[in-house]
Amino acid sequence: MYKVLLVDDEAIARTGLRTTFDWEGYGYRLVGEASNGQKALKWIEAGEVDILITDIAMPVMDGLELTRRTRQLCPWVKVLLLSCHSDFEYVREGIRLGAADYILKPTLDSASLKDVLERMRQKLEEEKRLERIVTEHERQQREQRKRADEKTLYLALHGEAAAMENLAGFRSDGQFVVAVCRLDGGPRSDGFGAAPLDGEEEMERFKSCLYEQLPDALSVRTGPDLLAAWVPVDGMERSEDPRCDHLLLPLAAFATIGLSRRYAGPQRLAEAYVEASASLEASFFYREGRIFHAEDIGALGDRGGPEQAKPELQALRAALAVGNLPRCEVLLQSVMERWMPSRMGKQEVLVEAEELLGMLSTYSLSALPIVSPAFELTRLRSVEEVRSVILDAFQAVRDEPNRGPFPEATLHERIVLQAISYINAHYTEPISLQEVADEVAVSRNYFSELFKRVTGSNFIDYVIDLRVKRAKELLAATSLRVYEVAELSGFNDVKYFSKLFKKLVGMTPAEYQGLNRK
């Protein structure tokens, strides 16, 4: 219902208007009445009026001044002037001031009032309709500008720093931080860690929350469950909150956040994005946190990387080959103790964990896989979850019913261990069964049978396993072409390599490389 205010200095006139017209029946509601313009202003100032019916001649503040003030405060209000015959010049002035219509008091009745109010209601409804159209158009324009800026931001984050200069509100000397937010998903039904969110609805909801909390920010989706945000912080005192936690704490209830240091200038945006992504990676090692800062991970020093674990991994493979499980457990724990941010990155841990799973699967007596596919490791959210998967796999190997106590190292086993050491050093070369047999000084046929008996694997399968694992490492960690990966892994025929890789891994080399780049 449209709200109507009656203003007239004659009480009997107000009473007549209030009682002789069916306001509710015609879709109007009287919100009040006043004896002069000054008293009527409290309703106008509160924005509680759609239609103002006012007499012109009144003490304290007349109808003309009330019309002028009303149009200033609430331009949408329709003003109906009540006039006597002698007030026509005043009526003309009222129309000039913005009154919508007038009625002569001597001719005022329910029918004429109804007609005038109906015209006013139509004008109000038309104005509201036009306002909705304009508002929606402006909203769409803002949304289009925002989407265009988000695309520009994506380019800038990935190295096109000049693109940042096209963003609305960007100042070349303004300070900013970059935040990389990973939405927290629920546990997977198979218990294998947290599933990344891949729904547009969840991402859009989080983005809306981010914009509500940080209206000057700009964000873009960079992965299935990742959102990167450029957050201007210019004008904030560093001493107030140098880490900007107060800006992001409400968002940390829904996501884990990696935060860069403060930067200025478009040429630093890509650098800040890399830094924020590295900060988020720290959550893999410190699960209890919600916001991770570049200041905390910037002084980690030189990481040893996976190369330092090669001797232990080779010793573990040899111990598995001869069934020395107590020695395997010691070596396994030693390898996993290196899984800390000061020594390895997340991707390095996952590559090493995949190699461990491959070893355990190779030397398992069971015909069925003892763990989920290795690429599922990428869905785990913490290093502790990865350790748990590895230990569960080792426990499955140790508890196999047909596995007896580990034997003493015999001459045959020492020969095989020597061969394994040689193979591990030369498998990327065109190595042959005869070459390895010559290395350990036994006949080709004898060595083939001996290797199978001790390791449970054929020589060629063992070499292929090593080469495929090396190929997966290169595909995950580099941008090499498939034929280059094949060559560096020991395959001299890229077509054979691609066919074999898909058979063993379940996807082509290019698909595997694309999966690890997401």
Automatic annotation (TrEMBL):
Domain of life where this protein originates: Bacteria
Residue stretches making up the Response regulatory domain: 3-120
PROSITE patterns referenced in this protein's UniProt entry, alphabetically: HTH_ARAC_FAMILY_1 (PS00041), HTH_ARAC_FAMILY_2 (PS01124), RESPONSE_REGULATORY (PS50110)
Keyword Transcription regulation: yes
SUPFAM superfamilies: CheY-like, Homeodomain-like
Residue intervals of the HTH araC/xylS-type domain: 417-515
Positions carrying 4-aspartylphosphate: 55
Pfam families cross-referenced by the UniProt entry: GGDEF_2, HTH_18, Response_reg
Coiled coil regions, renumbered to chain: 110-147
InterPro entries, sorted: CdaR_GGDEF (IPR041522), CheY-like_superfamily (IPR011006), Homeodomain-like_sf (IPR009057), HTH_AraC (IPR018060), HTH_AraC-typ_CS (IPR018062), Sig_transdc_resp-reg_receiver (IPR001789), Tscrpt_reg_AraC-type_HTH (IPR020449)
Keywords: Coiled coil, DNA-binding, Phosphoprotein, Transcription, Transcription regulation
Name under which the protein is recorded: Two-component system response regulator YesN
Top-level taxonomy: Bacteria, Bacillati, Bacillota, Bacilli, Bacillales
